[in-house]
Write a structure and sequence with these properties.
The chain is α/β, with parallel strands linked by helices. The chain is built from 14 helices and 5 strands. It has helices spanning about 15-20, 35-50, 65-75, 100-110, 115-125, 130-145, 150-160, 165-170, 180-195, 200-210, 215-230, 230-245, 255-265, 270-280; strands at about 5, 25-30, 55-60, 80-85, 90-95. α5 runs antiparallel to α6 (about 130-145) and α8 packs antiparallel against α9 (about 180-195). The radius of gyration is 28 Å and the shape is elongated. The two termini are about 40 Å apart.
C-alpha cells in the first residue's frame, strides 16, 4: 500500500476524508470493480499519486461495498472523483478522462513541491547555508530536471562552493530562451573562477612538463595543484595515468589522493567514470 492511499469505508470516512483533508488535499475516487474504465483508472491514479510525491491523499470508495457513502454523496455514475480540502468537496470530475486532464486536475489543487523546494533552496543560499541549499535544490532537480530556474540556482551554488567544473556543464545546457540576467552574471563568475584556477604554480608546472626528464614527478605535483584549484577532472586524469604505470607511486600516496578525491567530488558522472577505472587497476 502506498503512503496516504486508502480504501475507505463508512467507519474510516470521517478520519481519512473529512479530518484528513484539513491536513492535505484528499482525492476521493468512486469506482466499481464491474466498471472497466474504473479499473483502468486505478493504476493511473496510483502513478500520479507517486509522481506528486504523495502531496495529496488518495481515497478509493468501492461503490459496490459502500452504498451508504454513495447515497450520501448522490453519486450517479462511476467513475467519479472529488477533491476535498478543509473538510469540504471543492472540485470534481466524472466519466472517462485522459492522463493529462487528471494530472492538471490534481496539480490545480495540490502544492507545487518543486517550487517550494526551489524557494527553500534560494532562502538557504541567501542565508549562506550553501550545503543545505545544494541538497534542497538537488531534490527539486530530481523532480524537474529540465527546470532551468532550478539549474541556474544550482550553478550559482556550485560557483559559490568553488566547484566551477560542475557549474560549467550546467550553464552550457541552458537554452537561449532562458539565458537571463542571472545566467549572464553566472557566466561572468565562471570566467573569473576559471582564470583564478590557472595559478602561477600550475603555469610553472605545465611549463616544466614540456621539457622534464622525469615527467611522472611533475605530473604528480601538477595533479596536487589541480586538486587545490578544484580542477578535479584534470587531477583525476593525471593521477590515473600515474597509477596505470605505478600503482604504488609515492608509497601509495597517489592512490590515496585519488580515492580521497573520489570520495569528496560532487560530480556523480566523473566519480563513476574514474571509480570504474581505478577498480579495474586494483582488482
Amino acid at each position: 500500500m502506498q503512503a496516504n492511499s486508502y480504501d475507505v469505508s463508512v467507519s474510516t470516512f470521517p478520519q481519512i476524508i473529512i479530518e484528513g483533508s484539513k491536513e492535505k488535499p484528499v482525492l476521493v475516487f468512486f469506482w466499481s470493480p464491474r466498471c472497466p474504465i474504473c479499473t483502468a483508472l486505478l493504476p493511473l491514479l496510483d502513478k500520479l499519486h507517486g509522481e506528486n510525491n504523495y502531496a495529496f491523499t488518495l481515497a478509493r470508495i468501492n461503490c459496490d461495498t459502500e452504498p451508504q457513502i454513495v447515497s450520501h454523496f448522490g453519486v450517479q455514475s462511476v467513475p467519479s472523483a472529488f477533491m476535498f480540502k478543509d473538510g469540504q468537496g471543492v472540485d470534481g470530475f466524472a466519466g472517462e478522462q485522459n492522463e493529462e486532464f487528471i494530472r492538471q486536475f490534481i496539480n490545480k489543487h495540490t502544492p507545487n513541491l518543486t517550487l517550494e523546494l526551489l524557494q527553500q533552496g534560494q532562502t538557504l543560499f541567501a542565508q549562506g547555508k550553501l550545503v543545505e541549499a545544494k541538497t534542497t535544490l538537488l531534490e527539486a532537480n530530481k523532480l524537474e530536471p529540465e527546470n532551468n530556474e532550478i539549474n541556474l540556482a544550482l550553478a550559482q551554488i556550485y560557483l559559490a562552493l568553488g566547484d566551477h567544473e560542475i557549474a560549467s556543464p550546467i550553464l552550457e545546457l541552458i537554452p537561449l530562451a532562458d539565458q537571463n540576467m542571472i545566467y549572464h552574471s553566472l557566466i561572468a563568475q565562471l570566467q573569473i573562477a576559471l582564470e583564478s584556477a590557472q595559478t602561477p604554480e600550475i603555469d610553472a608546472l605545465e611549463a616544466q612538463l614540456q621539457t622534464a626528464q622525469d615527467k611522472q614527478a611533475i605530473e604528480y605535483q601538477l595533479a596536487i595543484q589541480y586538486q587545490r584549484a578544484k580542477r578535479n577532472s584534470e587531477a583525476l586524469a593525471l593521477l590515473y595515468k600515474i597509477l596505470v604505470s605505478d600503482l604504488g607511486y609515492e608509497n601509495g600516496d597517489a592512490k590515496k589522493m585519488m580515492l580521497d578525491l573520489l570520495a569528496t567530488i560532487d560530480d556523480a558522472v566523473l566519480v563513476s567514470q574514474y571509480r570504474r577505472k581505478l577498480y579495474s587497476l586494483l582488482y
